[in-house]
Amino acid sequence: MSRKSFQNNKMAVKRIKTSVDAIGGSTETKTTVYNVACRIRQLEANEGSVGGKDGTISTHRIYCDAINIKSSDECIISKKIYDVNTINSTSTKDGYIQVDVTYRG
Fold first, then answer.
1. What is the CATH architecture assignment of 3-103?
2. Kindly report the CA angle at 22 between 16 and 27, in degrees rounded to 5?
3. 13 Cβ partners below 8 Å, 6+ apart?
């Protein structure tokens, strides 16, 4: 079986975009930057890695095609929101990445 056959979820990756309004103030909006197929799994107790953001402990790992995801992004899968902690591998040779995330709600 191919890796693609295990990617049975759809993930939207959202990023905060900042723009300047008419009076010079800034406005932040969340924009979907990617819609990709993925696989997500809950991490075992002994796998929980401390993420790059304020020592946050990751709760899940997402496997998806190699995209330019950032630690400030959020991932939405089945209406559940996950904050990106770390990108474990950017194996462009294999064409996929592993992203450790924390479930937010």
1. Beta Barrel (2.40)
2. 15
3. 32, 33, 34, 35, 36, 67, 69, 73, 74, 75, 76
One-letter amino acid identity for 73?
D
77 token code pair: 């899968």
Query: If you ran DSSP here, which 8-state letter would residue 21 be given?
Result: -
Quick one: DSSP state of residue 3? G
The two structure tokens encoding residue 18:
């900042």
pLDDT tens by residue, 39-80? 999 998 777 666 566 678 889 999 998 899 999 999 999 999
Is the pTM for the entire model greater than 0.85?
no
The dihedral built from the CA positions of residue 64, 68, 72 and 78, taken in this order, carries a sign that is negative
Predicted local confidence at residue 53, as pLDDT: 61
Domain ranges in the chain?
3-103
Predicted local distance difference test score (pLDDT) of residue 72: 92
